[in-house]
Amino acid sequence: MKTEIYLKLLEMRKKHPCLFCLIDPDKNDILTNVRLAEIYEKCNADAILIGGSIMIEDNYEETILQIKKSVKIPVIIFPGLFNFVSGYADAILLLNMLSSRNPQVLIEEQVRCAPQLYHTGLESIPTGYILIESGNLSSVQYMSHSLPIPRKKNDIALIHALAGQYMGMKMIYLEAGSGAKEAIPNEMIKYVANKLDIPLIVGGGIRTAESAKEKADAGADFIVIGTVLEELDNYTLVKDIADAIHSVQK
C-alpha cells in the first residue's frame, strides 16, 4: 500500500504544525476552486483538502484534476461519502467515524469505496474521525446520524482516539463540523494529544489566527480551515493562520 503522502506529512509535522485548507467543489465553479487552491498555496498552506457532505454539481473529478495541475502541495480527498474517490488526487483520508455507532460510517462506506481504491491505486490514509459537540447541528452530524462527543468530556474523546490508534489508524481527526459555532476546546486537544502516538488533526470552528495557534500550542499537528474563508472572502487570513501555526515549535 502506498505511503508516500503520509510519510511526507509526517516529515512536515516534525518541523511545525501544518495547515490544511478545505475546498468544497460544490460551493464554486471549477475555475474559482482552482484559483482558491493557488491562493492557499501562495499563502503557505501545506495541503489542500477536497470534500464536502453533499455533491450536487457534477464537477468533482474535474476540480481535483485541475487543482492537481495547478499546485505543488498535496491534494487530499476528505470524503463526505466514499463514492467521492478520484485517482487524480494524491491521497484520501480513509475515515472511520469512531464517535458514531452508525454502521454506514463505521464500515459500509469503506467497503463501498474499496474497489475504487484498488483500481485507482489511490493512497489511503486510515484516519479515526471523532465528532465533537460544537454548539449547533453540523452537516456531518446530520448526514451521518451520529451523536457527537460532549465537548467537556475529554476522557471520552481520548478513549475513542486511543481505540483508533490501537486499531491501526494513522491519524486521528477531532472535528467540530463545517460551520461549527464553537471549535474543539484547547483542553481536549491537549488531553488527547499528550496520550497519542499518532498525528492529530483538528478542524471546525477555527476563525482566527489566534485560535489556530492555540490549537497548535495545545498539540494539534494539522489544522483544517474552510468555512471561515467562504464566510469572509478574506484570503489573507490563510497566510495569517499559516504563519501563526508555523511559528509553534515541535
Blueprint (SSEs and pairs):
Elements: H1 4-15, E1 18-23, H2 30-42, E2 47-50, H3 60-70, E3 75-77, E4 91-97, H4 103-120, E5 123-131, H5 139-144, H6 154-166, E6 171-175, H7 186-193, E7 200-203, H8 209-218, E8 222-225, H9 227-232, H10 236-246
Parallel strand pairs: 1-2, 1-8, 2-3, 3-4, 4-5, 5-6, 6-7, 7-8
Helix pairs in contact: 2-3, 6-7, 7-8, 8-10
CATH fold-level label: TIM Barrel
* Separation, N- and C-terminal Cα atoms: 29 Å
- In round numbers, the mean pLDDT is 92
- The fraction of residues in strands falls at 15-25%
The helix/strand series, from N terminus to C terminus, equals HEHEHEEHEHHEHEHEHH
**Strand sequence of the main sheet, in spatial order?**
1-2-3-4-5-6-7-8
Uncertain parts: none
Question: What is the class in the CATH system?
Answer: Alpha Beta
Rg: 16 Å
Descriptive overview:
It is a single chain. By secondary structure, the chain is α/β, with parallel strands linked by helices. It has one domain (4-13, 23-246): FMN-linked oxidoreductases (TIM Barrel, Alpha-Beta Barrel). It contains ten helices and eight strands. The chain has an eight-stranded parallel barrel, surrounded by seven helices. It is globular, with a radius of gyration of 16 Å.
